[in-house]
Amino acid sequence: MLMIDGRLPTRALVFTLLLCLAAVLSTTSCSSNEAKVKKVIQEYMKNQGVTDLVMDSFFTDPQYPGKAYTSATVTYNFASSGGNPQKEFLGFILAQEGNSWRIERTTSYTKDKAQAAKFLGGGK
Predict the structure, then answer these.
(1) Could you tell me if 82 and 45 are in contact, meaning their C-beta atoms sit under 8 angstroms apart?
(2) Which residue among 1, 61, 66, 115 is least packed, with the fewest CB closer than 10 Å?
């Protein structure tokens, strides 16, 4: 390694630490949005007998700022004809309002990022 007054290793270390910090902050931001969205969906579904809500995906697209797509698997407190808890797979288009989200409309379920981008653009 090339050393010029001992600065190169220090600069490399500082750069590496800043890169790690940026990665942690971006991960925290995404998980924070997902937690906020989960609360919004729980509030939306609160009177429908939901016993479990699992967020399956959360996508944003720079082409549609202030919008996001999320999909969720919802388990209800009643059973299907086979005796198993009833599950439903839902998709939502969300609009950002300040620091939180609101449900703009429901849409089809997907875990595919390309399909989610189509839904954000108004496609089916």
Answers:
(1) no
(2) 1
Domain assignment present for 81: yes
CB 76 within 8 A of CB 54: no
Q: What is the pLDDT of residues 48-94, one digit of tens each?
A: 999 999 999 999 999 999 999 999 999 999 888 888 999 999 999 99
Percent share of the chain, pLDDT over 90: 58
- The count of domains in the chain is 1
Tell whether 88 is covered by a domain.
Answer: yes
**Tokens representing residue 3 in the block:** 């050393």
State the CATH number of the domain containing residue 94: 3.10.450
Domain extent, residue 102, equals: 7-120
Spatial neighbors of 118 by CB under 8 A, at least 6 apart, are 124
From the number of C-beta atoms within 10 Å of its C-beta (0-12, 13-18, 19+), residue 47 rates as exposed
Beta strands in 1-124 (DSSP E): 50-60, 67-79, 85-97, 100-107
Beta bridge partners of 92: 70, 106
Instruction: Please check whether residue 60 is in contact with residue 67, taking contact to mean a CB–CB distance below 8 angstroms.
Output: yes
